[in-house]
Amino acid sequence: MGTFFVAIDECTVENGCLQLLRGSHKCGRLDHTKDDGQFSPSNDRLEFLKKILPLDVVEMKPGDAVFFHCNVLHMSEINTSDKRRIGFPICYNRASNSPTKKHHHPPYSPISKVIM
Fold it and tell me: Which domain of life is it from (predicted)?
């Protein structure tokens, strides 16, 4: 699974651009909990990783794109500027990577081809 993120508007530090914790995908899948409406890994684990892994601030122009592994820890800040920040995240997942637990994403089911 991976995410392809395309900037529709300019994404800057001022309007809360995407931030990636480089190399965090090598730490394995981290359990997340819901806190204040957002899902995030445990604060102790996250704070430890922030000390040893570099943070990439991903400023983008409209049309720029970034592709990242599903286990890369990522976030964006609240947009407190007067400029909008719209991005289009596209998530890819192989059929063989169907969820094993009941989840808000449905399990994979094949689509029948209709021949006319």
Answer: Eukaryota
Q: What homologous superfamily is domain 2-97 in, according to CATH?
A: q2cbj1_9rhob like domain (2.60.120.620)
In this prediction, residue 55 carries a pLDDT of 95
Measured CA to CA, the distance from residue 27 to residue 49 in angstroms comes to: 9
Q: How far apart are CA 21 and CA 70, in angstroms?
A: 12
Q: What does the alpha-carbon distance between residue 22 and residue 53 come to, in Å, rounded to a whole number?
A: 6
**What pLDDT shows up at residue 40?**
76
48-57: long-range contacts (C-beta < 8 A, 24 or more apart)?
A: 49/21, 49/24, 49/73, 50/21, 53/21, 53/22, 53/23, 53/24, 54/21, 54/22, 54/23, 55/19, 55/20, 55/21, 55/22, 56/19, 56/20, 56/21, 56/22, 57/13, 57/17, 57/19
Predicted local distance difference test score (pLDDT) of residue 43: 75
**Which two three-digit tokens encode residue 71?**
């286990």
